[in-house]
Design brief:
mainly alpha; two-stranded antiparallel ribbon; two-stranded antiparallel sheet; 19 helices; disordered N terminus; HPP family; membrane; HPP; transmembrane; transmembrane helix
Length: about 500
């Protein structure tokens, strides 16, 4: 069954053997023996006596690409609404995400040369730019840094969500796991993400309506586990082959020594008694050999070299990351959107500033409305509208967590004010990131409240002002056809899911 045709268009040739073909009769054990340079095991079945041509073709096959490509193809063929599958992995240096050879699959129905652009009318030309290497403006899957492009963004976000790896996912009940869908169009147009032309082209061509069916989601979860397992299998498989080679070499070496010893004793000793007397002596001398100081020093030197190599690799990784990448910065807003952001921010800041001034004038400084966090929040609302930090959940829960921690820190005795501010802000940031409610203005609030200058009255006014900003900001932002705020309004999670998550941690 041919999944891909041999052509320059696909640059991939992948053939699954038929059930009655000679290729399917070669076992994995025979293939590994061929990789090691050994002859296949003899069997009575005539199909295992394959021709030398077949053995050579199998020997040239890259098993890693084959396994990974099979997993990706199975993920695409078995699901609904899937046209293209990609597998991305973090490189050994930990600096870039790369798409390994064989780590992609595309449904051949959706691309051929019947039309001028090659998409047969089933895909848009934007998709052809991503999938067709012969397209004049082809966008290759170049390595990306974490946080850049579709793969980089999903990789960065996966570090903050529940682990769904093989050990933590496929062995659990799959019905309890859910797919977290992201709107690719929103990601492509998000100004706080680095601009990626490949992500933009994908966003112009997708429709994930069929993908959200419950059964299809569960299949995609398990298929993702299978792709991850196929990639993770590479190093253990190579290590296993290396170990088998080492055992083979050791056995051959021992056999040679035994043969040489037998020849030596057979030539020099005619008396079998003398031979039997010396064998135990040699055996005891070999087993009783003590490790010399030089050997111990050599062993210690190897350990030190290994530690130095690891430290050098860590320094190299940090230095490489600090250089940044060649990605372009996000595009600026248009003049229309910049003017819209100005007027929206002006109107929204006028309300809390005016209310705060009236409260201080009427009731004194005890009713001061802290404006610095508001300025940062409104900047998020109109400058990074789709960012998670600008959403109501992050705003309200982030402020609640941060200020609560700061108020507790502010009453601890014997600590200088500057240290309370450092400790309170740091604890607040850690709590927000752990709970997935990161909100930068809440970090500023924690710094202010940790000083002990502000109390519960200021806290209540701050929360009330944030609620007002969310309501008014939603109305203003949604008057623009190019904006959507908020992108989600959920304030929490299922208590049962939260309990299971905390219990597992």
């Amino acid at each position: 069954m041919d999944l891909f045709s041999r052509s320059a268009r696909s640059r991939v040739s992948f053939t699954l053997p038929d059930d009655n073909s000679d290729e399917s009769s070669i076992s994995e054990e025979d293939f590994v023996r061929q990789e090691e340079g050994l002859a296949p095991l003899e069997r009575s079945n005539a199909s295992f006596g394959a021709s030398s041509h077949l053995r050579m073709s199998r020997r040239n096959l890259d098993v890693d690409e084959d396994i990974l490509h099979r997993a990706a193809a199975d993920a695409g063929l078995g699901s609904m609404g899937t046209v293209y599958v990609e597998v991305w992995t973090l490189n050994k240096e930990g600096t870039q995400l790369v798409r390994p050879e064989g780590g992609y699959w595309m449904d051949p129905i959706f691309h051929n040369k019947e039309t001028e652009c090659g998409c047969s009318g089933l895909l848009t030309c934007s998709a052809c730019r991503v999938f067709d290497p012969e397209h004049p403006t082809f966008l290759p899957a170049d390595p990306v840094a974490p946080g850049v492009g579709l793969a980089g963004v999903l990789w960065s976000e996966s570090a903050t969500v529940e682990d769904t790896a093989v050990a933590g996912g496929i062995l659990r009940d799959t019905t309890k796991r859910k797919v977290v869908w992201r709107d690719i169009r929103a990601m492509a147009n998000n100004p706080h993400l680095p601009y990626d032309e490949r992500l933009k082209a994908i966003a112009d061509s997708v429709d994930h309506g069929l993908l959200k069916e419950i059964g299809n989601e569960q299949y995609l979860l398990c298929a993702a586990d299978l792709c991850g397992a196929a990639w993770s299998l590479r190093e253990p498989r190579r290590a296993a082959i290396k170990s088998r080679k080492a055992l083979r070499d050791t056995a051959i070496h021992r056999a040679r020594l035994q043969i040489i010893t037998l020849i030596h004793f057979g030539v020099r000793f005619d008396n079998p008694v003398q031979n039997s007397d010396q064998e135990p002596s040699n055996h005891n001398n070999n087993n009783g050999k003590k490790v010399s100081i030089a050997e111990k020093e050599a062993s210690l030197g190897k350990v030190v070299k290994k530690q130095l190599a690891q430290a050098s690799n860590a320094v190299t990784m940090v230095a490489t990351k600090c250089k940044g990448t060649d990605n372009r910065p996000p595009p600026p807003f248009s003049n229309e959107q910049a003017v819209f952001s100005f007027f929206g921010s002006f109107v929204l800041l006028t309300l809390p500033a005016g209310i705060g001034h009236s409260l201080v004038t009427s009731y004194g400084s005890d009713y001061l409305l802290l404006m610095p966090p508001f300025g940062a929040f409104i900047c998020l609302q109109f400058g990074l509208t789709q960012a998670p930090a600008a959403q109501p959940r992050s705003c309200l829960l982030g402020q609640l967590h941060s200020v609560s921690i700061a108020l507790i820190i502010s009453v601890i005795p014997l600590l200088p004010v500057w240290f309370k501010q450092v400790l309170g802000t740091s604890l607040a940031i850690g709590a927000m990131t752990r709970c997935g409610i990161t909100h930068p203005p809440a970090g500023a609030s924690a710094f202010l409240f940790s000083s002990g200058t502000y109390g519960m009255t200021h806290f209540v006014l701050l929360l009330a002002g944030n609620v007002l900003a969310i309501i008014v900001g939603s109305i203003i932002n949604n008057t623009s056809e190019k904006r959507q705020y908020p992108t989600y309004i959920a304030m929490g999670c299922n208590p049962k899911d939260a309990y299971e998550y905390l219990k597992r941690d």
